[in-house]
Design a protein that fits this description.
This protein is an alpha/beta fold. It is built from 13 helices and 11 strands. The chain has 4 domains: about 60 residues; about 55 residues; about 130 residues, 5'-nuclease (Rossmann fold), CATH 3.40.50.1010; about 70 residues, Nucleic acid-binding proteins (OB fold (Dihydrolipoamide Acetyltransferase, E2P)), CATH 2.40.50.140. The strands form 2 sheets. A 6-stranded mixed beta sheet has the order 6-10-11-9-8-7, with no helix packed on it. A 5-stranded parallel beta sheet has the order 3-2-1-4-5, sandwiched between helices. It is elongated.
């Protein structure tokens, strides 16, 4: 029997009793069971009360409780702790003020302490939640950044320090984030919202073999990142009920908490940048790190295939940069010296045009 049905039966009984008592009050009969006129009122009112209790009982018990649970789950635990501390401090201040307030003449002496408790409790909780980040930074400075070695992996990402980075699914599956993290170039904590982890698990459980392999690769990358001492990887429960799409959730969280987003997704990159958010794209970083060749410089390269235009050959540098060789079709399969004639930067990356050095 479900909890919902249990409360329906309880509501049926309670409201049936209320209906019976209402009938007794209306008829003013001392013994309604032996009074036919009284039964004309008590029985229908009891049945009506039972029906009403069966229908509305869940809306008075389980439904509000479920809604409250869903709301509480969306609230970050940091805000809950800050609110509780602020409420306690507010009530403490109200208790101190209650002593002189009780000395006031009636009715102020009995009313104002109660009103003060409500006002100061509310203000304390509100101020603590709104300034939670400042409180955490103050505590961090007081403790000199001290967090016990046993809990270093779970430190508060709001503490003073580098801006945290939100990781999206694409950059985790890509895998290069682990290699970049090992170099020490990423100073800030890496945050993986639980909805991103759920999406990654969904991909890893996909019936499609390729998607399943990509999802499992992403989970392995997270395991690798968690084993690093720096930067710290944290799985966070931050979420926003205002959005259902993962990319939209990331943009909202980055805007609300002043996070940066790390992604390889072109669309997410553009949308976040248009809203003034800081976006780190590993593809753009990889393009920036590629070797720069200027017109007139020489390089040695193996030509491996034909180009799009007649007579062209194509080869690739070690970093994946495409080199288009004019008059290189006849040199396919050979390693030759080339002279750079032009370097073109495209949305897909850098492209180099060259000619065989003997043709220059």
């Amino acid at each position: 029997m479900t909890l919902d049905r249990i409360f329906r039966f309880i509501g049926l009984i309670v409201f049936a009793i209320i209906g019976w008592q209402t009938g007794i009050i209306i008829t003013q009969s001392p013994n309604p069971l032996n009074d036919l006129n009284a039964l004309k009122y008590t029985v229908p009112l009891s049945l009506l009360g039972a029906l009403l209790g069966w229908v509305i009982a869940p809306w008075l018990t389980t439904r509000p409780a479920s809604a409250a649970i869903r709301t509480v789950r969306q609230i970050p635990v940091e805000d809950v702790v800050a609110g509780a501390i602020g409420l306690a401090l507010g009530l403490l201040l109200a208790a101190l003020l209650a002593v002189p307030l009780t000395q006031l003449p009636e009715p102020f002496g009995s009313i104002l302490p109660f009103v003060g408790s409500i006002i100061f409790g509310y203000l304390g909780a509100m101020v603590a939640v709104l300034r939670g980040g400042d409180i955490v930074r103050l505590l961090a400075r007081t403790r000199r950044g001290g967090i016990s070695s046993g809990t270093a992996k779970s430190r508060d990402f709001r503490a003073a320090g580098p801006r945290p980075l939100l990781l999206d699914t694409s950059v985790i599956i890509d895998g290069r984030i682990a290699d970049v993290a090992k170099t020490g170039f990423l100073a800030g904590p890496l945050l993986v919202p639980r909805f991103v982890l759920n999406e990654l698990q969904y991909i890893a459980d996909s019936p499609d073999q390729l998607r399943r392999a990509r999802g499992r690769r992403g989970l392995e990358v997270l395991d690798e990142l968690q084993s690093l001492d720096s930067p710290i990887l944290e799985i966070v429960d931050l979420d926003t009920p205002k959005a259902k799409d993962v990319d939209e959730k990331l943009v909202i969280l980055a805007r609300e908490h002043d996070f940066a987003i790390m992604t390889n997704d072109y669309n997410l990159n553009r949308v976040a940048a248009l809203q003034g958010l800081t976006v780190l794209n590993l593809n753009e970083m990889a393009n920036a790190m590629k070797a720069i060749y200027l017109p007139g410089e020489t390089l040695r390269l193996r030509i491996i295939q034909e180009g799009k235009e007649p007579g062209q050959g194509v080869g690739y540098l070690d970093d994946g940069t495409m080199v288009v060789v004019e008059n290189g079709e006849a040199l396919i399969g050979r390693e030759v010296d080339l002279t750079v004639t032009k370097v073109l930067q495209t949305s897909a990356g850098r492209m180099i045009f060259a000619v065989p050095s003997t043709d220059k």
